[in-house]
Amino acid sequence: MTKEEELILTRAREKFMREGFHRTTMDEIASELRMSKKTIYKYFPSKEKLVNAAVTLLQKYIANNVTKIIESDDNAVLKIYKIFEFIGKIMEKVNEKTLEDFRRRLPEVWQRIDDFRTKLIQENLTTVVNQGKEEDLILPYPTSIIMAIYVAGIRAVINPEFLMNSSFSLTEVKNIALDMMMCAVLTDKGKEIFNKYKQGN
Amino acid sequence: MTKEEELILTRAREKFMREGFHRTTMDEIASELRMSKKTIYKYFPSKEKLVNAAVTLLQKYIANNVTKIIESDDNAVLKIYKIFEFIGKIMEKVNEKTLEDFRRRLPEVWQRIDDFRTKLIQENLTTVVNQGKEEDLILPYPTSIIMAIYVAGIRAVINPEFLMNSSFSLTEVKNIALDMMMCAVLTDKGKEIFNKYKQGN
Protein backbone atom coordinates (compact mmCIF):
# COMPACT_ATOMS: atom_id res chain seq x y z
CA MET A 1 0.00 0.00 0.00
CA THR A 2 1.39 3.46 -0.93
CA LYS A 3 1.60 6.29 1.63
CA GLU A 4 -1.06 8.13 -0.36
CA GLU A 5 -3.44 5.19 -0.36
CA GLU A 6 -2.97 4.72 3.39
CA LEU A 7 -3.60 8.41 4.04
CA ILE A 8 -6.85 8.32 2.06
CA LEU A 9 -7.99 5.18 3.89
CA THR A 10 -7.21 6.51 7.34
CA ARG A 11 -9.01 9.79 6.78
CA ALA A 12 -11.97 8.17 5.06
CA ARG A 13 -12.26 5.68 7.92
CA GLU A 14 -12.33 8.46 10.51
CA LYS A 15 -14.94 10.33 8.54
CA PHE A 16 -17.13 7.28 7.99
CA MET A 17 -16.97 6.41 11.70
CA ARG A 18 -17.81 9.94 12.80
CA GLU A 19 -20.37 10.91 10.21
CA GLY A 20 -21.66 7.67 8.76
CA PHE A 21 -21.31 6.16 5.35
CA HIS A 22 -24.32 7.71 3.69
CA ARG A 23 -23.72 11.32 4.71
CA THR A 24 -20.07 11.33 3.67
CA THR A 25 -19.45 12.19 0.01
CA MET A 26 -16.35 11.53 -2.06
CA ASP A 27 -16.20 15.31 -2.62
CA GLU A 28 -15.89 15.90 1.12
CA ILE A 29 -13.18 13.28 1.52
CA ALA A 30 -11.23 14.77 -1.41
CA SER A 31 -11.59 18.30 -0.04
CA GLU A 32 -10.50 17.29 3.49
CA LEU A 33 -7.45 15.55 2.05
CA ARG A 34 -6.77 18.42 -0.37
CA MET A 35 -6.64 15.88 -3.15
CA SER A 36 -8.48 15.63 -6.45
CA LYS A 37 -11.31 13.10 -6.62
CA LYS A 38 -9.40 11.60 -9.55
CA THR A 39 -6.53 10.63 -7.21
CA ILE A 40 -8.94 8.94 -4.83
CA TYR A 41 -10.76 7.12 -7.63
CA LYS A 42 -7.39 5.82 -8.87
CA TYR A 43 -7.16 3.69 -5.69
CA PHE A 44 -10.85 3.31 -4.88
CA PRO A 45 -13.21 3.30 -7.86
CA SER A 46 -16.31 3.71 -5.61
CA LYS A 47 -17.36 4.76 -2.12
CA GLU A 48 -18.27 1.11 -1.40
CA LYS A 49 -14.72 0.01 -2.29
CA LEU A 50 -13.31 2.76 -0.10
CA VAL A 51 -15.45 1.84 2.90
CA ASN A 52 -14.63 -1.85 2.46
CA ALA A 53 -10.90 -1.13 2.36
CA ALA A 54 -11.23 1.17 5.39
CA VAL A 55 -13.02 -1.56 7.36
CA THR A 56 -10.32 -4.09 6.40
CA LEU A 57 -7.58 -1.73 7.58
CA LEU A 58 -9.39 -1.08 10.87
CA GLN A 59 -9.88 -4.80 11.43
CA LYS A 60 -6.18 -5.46 10.87
CA TYR A 61 -5.35 -2.71 13.36
CA ILE A 62 -7.74 -4.18 15.93
CA ALA A 63 -6.55 -7.76 15.38
CA ASN A 64 -2.88 -6.72 15.77
CA ASN A 65 -3.52 -4.86 18.98
CA VAL A 66 -5.68 -7.58 20.50
CA THR A 67 -3.00 -10.17 19.64
CA LYS A 68 -0.40 -8.01 21.40
CA ILE A 69 -2.56 -7.91 24.54
CA ILE A 70 -3.21 -11.67 24.38
CA GLU A 71 0.48 -12.46 23.96
CA SER A 72 1.60 -10.22 26.83
CA ASP A 73 2.45 -11.53 30.31
CA ASP A 74 -0.60 -9.90 31.95
CA ASN A 75 -3.07 -11.87 34.02
CA ALA A 76 -6.38 -12.84 32.40
CA VAL A 77 -8.44 -10.13 34.12
CA LEU A 78 -6.12 -7.38 32.95
CA LYS A 79 -6.11 -8.81 29.42
CA ILE A 80 -9.93 -8.79 29.22
CA TYR A 81 -9.99 -5.31 30.74
CA LYS A 82 -7.42 -4.00 28.26
CA ILE A 83 -9.22 -5.54 25.27
CA PHE A 84 -12.50 -3.88 26.29
CA GLU A 85 -10.76 -0.56 26.93
CA PHE A 86 -9.07 -0.73 23.54
CA ILE A 87 -12.28 -1.63 21.68
CA GLY A 88 -14.09 1.00 23.75
CA LYS A 89 -11.67 3.73 22.63
CA ILE A 90 -12.35 2.85 19.00
CA MET A 91 -16.09 2.72 19.60
CA GLU A 92 -16.04 6.16 21.19
CA LYS A 93 -15.18 7.55 17.79
CA VAL A 94 -18.17 5.89 16.18
CA ASN A 95 -21.24 8.00 15.86
CA GLU A 96 -24.25 6.04 17.07
CA LYS A 97 -25.99 6.43 13.75
CA THR A 98 -23.00 5.06 11.85
CA LEU A 99 -23.61 1.46 12.78
CA GLU A 100 -27.28 1.75 11.89
CA ASP A 101 -26.21 3.39 8.62
CA PHE A 102 -24.00 0.37 7.91
CA ARG A 103 -26.64 -2.12 8.85
CA ARG A 104 -29.27 -0.52 6.63
CA ARG A 105 -27.28 0.73 3.64
CA LEU A 106 -24.35 -1.66 3.51
CA PRO A 107 -25.62 -4.88 5.09
CA GLU A 108 -22.66 -6.86 3.66
CA VAL A 109 -20.26 -4.53 5.46
CA TRP A 110 -22.17 -4.89 8.73
CA GLN A 111 -22.11 -8.67 8.21
CA ARG A 112 -18.32 -8.48 7.79
CA ILE A 113 -17.99 -6.42 10.98
CA ASP A 114 -20.23 -8.81 12.91
CA ASP A 115 -18.39 -11.93 11.63
CA PHE A 116 -15.03 -10.36 12.41
CA ARG A 117 -15.88 -9.51 15.98
CA THR A 118 -17.58 -12.86 16.63
CA LYS A 119 -14.38 -14.59 15.50
CA LEU A 120 -12.24 -12.10 17.45
CA ILE A 121 -14.21 -12.66 20.67
CA GLN A 122 -14.44 -16.42 20.16
CA GLU A 123 -10.74 -16.99 19.55
CA ASN A 124 -9.17 -14.52 21.93
CA LEU A 125 -11.63 -14.65 24.79
CA THR A 126 -11.47 -18.45 24.79
CA THR A 127 -7.69 -18.28 25.31
CA VAL A 128 -8.00 -15.70 28.10
CA VAL A 129 -10.85 -17.50 29.86
CA ASN A 130 -8.76 -20.68 29.96
CA GLN A 131 -5.78 -18.70 31.26
CA GLY A 132 -8.00 -17.12 33.91
CA LYS A 133 -9.22 -20.50 35.10
CA GLU A 134 -5.64 -21.69 35.51
CA GLU A 135 -4.81 -18.51 37.43
CA ASP A 136 -7.80 -19.06 39.72
CA LEU A 137 -9.25 -15.71 38.64
CA ILE A 138 -12.16 -17.20 36.68
CA LEU A 139 -14.60 -19.76 38.07
CA PRO A 140 -14.30 -23.28 36.66
CA TYR A 141 -17.39 -23.13 34.44
CA PRO A 142 -17.08 -24.87 31.08
CA THR A 143 -15.42 -22.44 28.67
CA SER A 144 -17.84 -23.38 25.86
CA ILE A 145 -20.84 -22.26 27.95
CA ILE A 146 -19.16 -19.01 29.06
CA MET A 147 -18.23 -18.25 25.45
CA ALA A 148 -21.66 -18.99 23.98
CA ILE A 149 -23.36 -16.72 26.54
CA TYR A 150 -20.76 -13.95 26.11
CA VAL A 151 -20.74 -13.90 22.32
CA ALA A 152 -24.56 -13.83 22.26
CA GLY A 153 -24.74 -11.21 25.03
CA ILE A 154 -22.27 -8.85 23.38
CA ARG A 155 -23.93 -9.23 19.98
CA ALA A 156 -27.32 -8.49 21.54
CA VAL A 157 -26.39 -5.09 22.97
CA ILE A 158 -23.44 -3.85 20.88
CA ASN A 159 -25.78 -3.85 17.96
CA PRO A 160 -27.22 -1.02 15.84
CA GLU A 161 -30.83 -2.05 16.41
CA PHE A 162 -30.49 -2.24 20.19
CA LEU A 163 -28.49 0.99 20.45
CA MET A 164 -30.89 2.97 18.24
CA ASN A 165 -33.80 1.96 20.48
CA SER A 166 -31.86 2.57 23.67
CA SER A 167 -31.20 5.77 25.58
CA PHE A 168 -27.67 4.63 26.46
CA SER A 169 -24.49 5.36 24.55
CA LEU A 170 -22.25 2.68 23.09
CA THR A 171 -19.70 3.36 25.84
CA GLU A 172 -22.27 3.09 28.63
CA VAL A 173 -23.60 -0.18 27.23
CA LYS A 174 -20.05 -1.52 26.81
CA ASN A 175 -19.15 -0.66 30.42
CA ILE A 176 -22.27 -2.29 31.86
CA ALA A 177 -21.81 -5.39 29.69
CA LEU A 178 -18.18 -5.67 30.85
CA ASP A 179 -19.18 -5.28 34.52
CA MET A 180 -21.89 -7.93 34.21
CA MET A 181 -19.65 -10.33 32.30
CA MET A 182 -16.81 -9.98 34.78
CA CYS A 183 -19.02 -10.34 37.86
CA ALA A 184 -20.61 -13.45 36.34
CA VAL A 185 -17.42 -15.50 36.16
CA LEU A 186 -14.69 -13.97 38.34
CA THR A 187 -13.51 -15.57 41.56
CA ASP A 188 -13.16 -13.30 44.62
CA LYS A 189 -9.47 -12.88 43.80
CA GLY A 190 -10.42 -12.03 40.20
CA LYS A 191 -12.99 -9.46 41.34
CA GLU A 192 -10.45 -7.78 43.58
CA ILE A 193 -8.07 -7.40 40.65
CA PHE A 194 -10.84 -6.16 38.35
CA ASN A 195 -12.02 -3.51 40.84
CA LYS A 196 -8.45 -2.31 41.32
CA TYR A 197 -8.03 -1.75 37.57
CA LYS A 198 -11.40 -0.03 37.30
CA GLN A 199 -10.62 2.38 40.12
CA GLY A 200 -7.19 3.11 38.70
CA ASN A 201 -8.88 4.38 35.58
CA MET B 1 -61.62 -29.98 25.94
CA THR B 2 -62.97 -33.43 26.86
CA LYS B 3 -61.29 -35.63 29.49
CA GLU B 4 -60.37 -38.05 26.72
CA GLU B 5 -58.75 -35.34 24.59
CA GLU B 6 -56.78 -34.09 27.58
CA LEU B 7 -55.60 -37.59 28.44
CA ILE B 8 -54.37 -38.15 24.88
CA LEU B 9 -52.58 -34.80 24.87
CA THR B 10 -50.89 -35.31 28.22
CA ARG B 11 -49.60 -38.76 27.35
CA ALA B 12 -48.56 -37.75 23.84
CA ARG B 13 -46.70 -34.76 25.27
CA GLU B 14 -44.79 -36.93 27.74
CA LYS B 15 -43.89 -39.38 25.00
CA PHE B 16 -42.79 -36.67 22.57
CA MET B 17 -40.62 -35.03 25.24
CA ARG B 18 -39.02 -38.30 26.27
CA GLU B 19 -38.60 -39.99 22.92
CA GLY B 20 -38.79 -37.24 20.33
CA PHE B 21 -41.34 -36.46 17.71
CA HIS B 22 -39.95 -38.53 14.89
CA ARG B 23 -39.47 -41.77 16.78
CA THR B 24 -42.95 -41.75 18.32
CA THR B 25 -45.66 -43.30 16.17
CA MET B 26 -49.40 -42.84 16.45
CA ASP B 27 -49.59 -46.63 16.92
CA GLU B 28 -47.41 -46.41 20.03
CA ILE B 29 -49.45 -43.57 21.48
CA ALA B 30 -52.68 -45.48 20.87
CA SER B 31 -51.28 -48.66 22.39
CA GLU B 32 -49.94 -46.85 25.49
CA LEU B 33 -53.34 -45.23 26.00
CA ARG B 34 -55.18 -48.49 25.24
CA MET B 35 -57.25 -46.60 22.71
CA SER B 36 -57.93 -47.17 19.04
CA LYS B 37 -56.04 -44.95 16.60
CA LYS B 38 -59.51 -43.99 15.31
CA THR B 39 -60.30 -42.32 18.67
CA ILE B 40 -57.08 -40.36 18.56
CA TYR B 41 -57.59 -39.31 14.93
CA LYS B 42 -61.07 -38.06 15.89
CA TYR B 43 -59.41 -35.30 17.94
CA PHE B 44 -56.07 -35.02 16.14
CA PRO B 45 -56.14 -35.82 12.42
CA SER B 46 -52.31 -35.97 12.20
CA LYS B 47 -49.21 -36.34 14.36
CA GLU B 48 -48.34 -32.70 13.54
CA LYS B 49 -51.71 -31.55 14.90
CA LEU B 50 -51.20 -33.66 18.02
CA VAL B 51 -47.73 -32.28 18.69
CA ASN B 52 -48.92 -28.71 18.12
CA ALA B 53 -51.80 -29.16 20.57
CA ALA B 54 -49.46 -30.80 23.09
CA VAL B 55 -47.04 -27.87 22.85
CA THR B 56 -49.92 -25.40 23.32
CA LEU B 57 -51.11 -27.25 26.44
CA LEU B 58 -47.59 -27.33 27.87
CA GLN B 59 -47.13 -23.61 27.19
CA LYS B 60 -50.39 -22.80 29.00
CA TYR B 61 -49.27 -24.92 31.95
CA ILE B 62 -45.90 -23.13 32.03
CA ALA B 63 -47.43 -19.65 31.64
CA ASN B 64 -49.93 -20.31 34.46
CA ASN B 65 -47.27 -21.52 36.85
CA VAL B 66 -44.86 -18.71 36.05
CA THR B 67 -47.66 -16.18 36.56
CA LYS B 68 -48.38 -17.71 39.98
CA ILE B 69 -44.72 -17.32 40.97
CA ILE B 70 -44.62 -13.74 39.66
CA GLU B 71 -47.80 -12.78 41.53
CA SER B 72 -46.66 -14.28 44.83
CA ASP B 73 -45.21 -12.22 47.71
CA ASP B 74 -41.71 -13.70 47.31
CA ASN B 75 -38.64 -11.53 46.88
CA ALA B 76 -37.18 -11.16 43.38
CA VAL B 77 -34.30 -13.59 43.92
CA LEU B 78 -36.63 -16.35 45.10
CA LYS B 79 -38.96 -15.70 42.17
CA ILE B 80 -36.15 -16.04 39.60
CA TYR B 81 -34.88 -19.12 41.43
CA LYS B 82 -38.34 -20.71 41.47
CA ILE B 83 -38.95 -19.97 37.79
CA PHE B 84 -35.66 -21.62 36.80
CA GLU B 85 -36.33 -24.60 39.07
CA PHE B 86 -39.80 -25.01 37.59
CA ILE B 87 -38.57 -24.76 33.98
CA GLY B 88 -35.67 -27.05 34.92
CA LYS B 89 -38.04 -29.75 36.19
CA ILE B 90 -39.88 -29.70 32.88
CA MET B 91 -36.62 -29.72 30.94
CA GLU B 92 -35.37 -32.76 32.85
CA LYS B 93 -38.10 -34.76 31.16
CA VAL B 94 -36.94 -33.69 27.71
CA ASN B 95 -34.59 -36.05 25.96
CA GLU B 96 -31.65 -34.09 24.53
CA LYS B 97 -32.39 -35.31 21.04
CA THR B 98 -36.00 -34.13 21.23
CA LEU B 99 -35.22 -30.45 20.79
CA GLU B 100 -32.95 -31.21 17.85
CA ASP B 101 -35.70 -33.42 16.45
CA PHE B 102 -38.09 -30.45 16.69
CA ARG B 103 -35.65 -28.02 15.18
CA ARG B 104 -34.90 -30.25 12.20
CA ARG B 105 -38.21 -31.92 11.49
CA LEU B 106 -40.74 -29.40 12.77
CA PRO B 107 -39.02 -26.02 12.46
CA GLU B 108 -42.36 -24.17 12.87
CA VAL B 109 -42.88 -25.89 16.22
CA TRP B 110 -39.38 -25.01 17.36
CA GLN B 111 -40.04 -21.42 16.23
CA ARG B 112 -43.22 -21.40 18.37
CA ILE B 113 -41.30 -22.73 21.37
CA ASP B 114 -38.55 -20.16 20.89
CA ASP B 115 -41.00 -17.25 20.46
CA PHE B 116 -42.97 -18.35 23.51
CA ARG B 117 -39.98 -18.52 25.80
CA THR B 118 -38.53 -15.24 24.51
CA LYS B 119 -41.85 -13.56 25.34
CA LEU B 120 -42.07 -15.40 28.67
CA ILE B 121 -38.56 -14.36 29.70
CA GLN B 122 -38.99 -10.81 28.40
CA GLU B 123 -42.27 -10.10 30.17
CA ASN B 124 -41.78 -11.89 33.46
CA LEU B 125 -38.09 -11.38 34.02
CA THR B 126 -38.51 -7.64 33.34
CA THR B 127 -41.07 -7.43 36.15
CA VAL B 128 -38.88 -9.39 38.56
CA VAL B 129 -35.70 -7.48 37.70
CA ASN B 130 -37.48 -4.20 38.43
CA GLN B 131 -38.82 -5.63 41.70
CA GLY B 132 -35.31 -6.81 42.60
CA LYS B 133 -33.87 -3.36 42.01
CA GLU B 134 -36.46 -1.84 44.34
CA GLU B 135 -35.65 -4.48 46.96
CA ASP B 136 -31.93 -3.69 46.66
CA LEU B 137 -31.24 -7.28 45.64
CA ILE B 138 -30.36 -6.45 42.03
CA LEU B 139 -27.78 -3.85 40.97
CA PRO B 140 -29.17 -0.68 39.39
CA TYR B 141 -28.19 -1.53 35.80
CA PRO B 142 -30.69 -0.47 33.12
CA THR B 143 -33.31 -3.24 32.88
CA SER B 144 -33.29 -3.09 29.06
CA ILE B 145 -29.58 -3.95 28.96
CA ILE B 146 -29.92 -6.77 31.51
CA MET B 147 -32.86 -8.19 29.58
CA ALA B 148 -31.21 -8.03 26.14
CA ILE B 149 -28.11 -9.84 27.45
CA TYR B 150 -30.17 -12.44 29.35
CA VAL B 151 -32.58 -13.27 26.54
CA ALA B 152 -29.66 -13.65 24.09
CA GLY B 153 -27.58 -15.64 26.59
CA ILE B 154 -30.36 -18.10 27.41
CA ARG B 155 -31.26 -18.55 23.75
CA ALA B 156 -27.60 -19.22 22.91
CA VAL B 157 -27.15 -22.16 25.27
CA ILE B 158 -30.65 -23.59 25.84
CA ASN B 159 -30.71 -24.36 22.19
CA PRO B 160 -30.74 -27.67 20.28
CA GLU B 161 -27.66 -26.84 18.20
CA PHE B 162 -25.55 -25.83 21.19
CA LEU B 163 -26.68 -28.78 23.32
CA MET B 164 -26.08 -31.36 20.57
CA ASN B 165 -22.50 -30.12 20.19
CA SER B 166 -21.93 -29.90 23.93
CA SER B 167 -20.98 -32.57 26.43
CA PHE B 168 -23.24 -31.03 29.10
CA SER B 169 -26.84 -31.91 29.86
CA LEU B 170 -29.67 -29.41 29.62
CA THR B 171 -29.85 -29.33 33.42
CA GLU B 172 -26.12 -28.67 33.81
CA VAL B 173 -26.24 -25.86 31.25
CA LYS B 174 -29.34 -24.38 32.92
CA ASN B 175 -27.67 -24.40 36.35
CA ILE B 176 -24.49 -22.75 35.09
CA ALA B 177 -26.45 -20.13 33.13
CA LEU B 178 -28.54 -19.35 36.25
CA ASP B 179 -25.41 -19.04 38.42
CA MET B 180 -23.73 -16.72 35.91
CA MET B 181 -26.85 -14.61 35.43
CA MET B 182 -27.43 -14.22 39.14
CA CYS B 183 -23.80 -13.40 39.96
CA ALA B 184 -23.76 -10.81 37.18
CA VAL B 185 -26.50 -8.62 38.65
CA LEU B 186 -27.11 -9.46 42.31
CA THR B 187 -26.09 -7.14 45.13
CA ASP B 188 -24.25 -8.70 48.09
CA LYS B 189 -27.59 -9.00 49.90
CA GLY B 190 -29.07 -10.64 46.79
CA LYS B 191 -26.18 -13.10 46.54
CA GLU B 192 -26.59 -14.08 50.19
CA ILE B 193 -30.25 -14.89 49.59
CA PHE B 194 -29.48 -16.78 46.38
CA ASN B 195 -26.79 -18.94 48.03
CA LYS B 196 -29.14 -19.75 50.91
CA TYR B 197 -31.79 -21.05 48.49
CA LYS B 198 -29.24 -23.01 46.50
CA GLN B 199 -27.87 -24.72 49.60
CA GLY B 200 -31.35 -25.49 50.85
CA ASN B 201 -31.91 -27.49 47.71
Give the secondary structure arrangement, pairings included.
The structure is a homodimer of 201-residue chains.
Chain A: H1 3-19, H2 26-33, H3 37-43, H4 47-71, H5 76-92, H6 96-105, H7 107-134, H8 143-157, H9 160-164, H10 170-185, H11 188-200
Helix pairs in contact in A: 1-4, 4-5, 4-7, 5-7, 5-10, 6-7, 7-8, 8-10
Instruction: Tell me the β content of chain A.
Output: under 5%
**Total number of domains of chain A:** 1
Tally the helices of chain A. 11
Radius of gyration of chain A: 19 Å
Query: What is the terminal-to-terminal distance of chain A?
Result: 37 Å
Characterize the quaternary organization of these chains. homodimer
Q: Helix- and strand-based class of chain A?
A: mainly alpha
Main sheet properties of chain A: none
CATH topology category name of chain A: Tetracycline Repressor, domain 2
**What is the approximate shape of chain A?**
elongated
Which CATH class of chain A applies here?
Mainly Alpha
Question: What does this protein structure show overall?
Answer:
- 2 copies of one chain form a homodimer.
- Chain A has 11 helices and no strands.
- By secondary structure, the first copy, chain A, is mostly helical.
- Chain A has one domain (56-200): Tetracycline Repressor, domain 2, CATH 1.10.357.
- At the A-B interface, helix 8 and helix 10 of A face helix 8 and helix 10 of B.
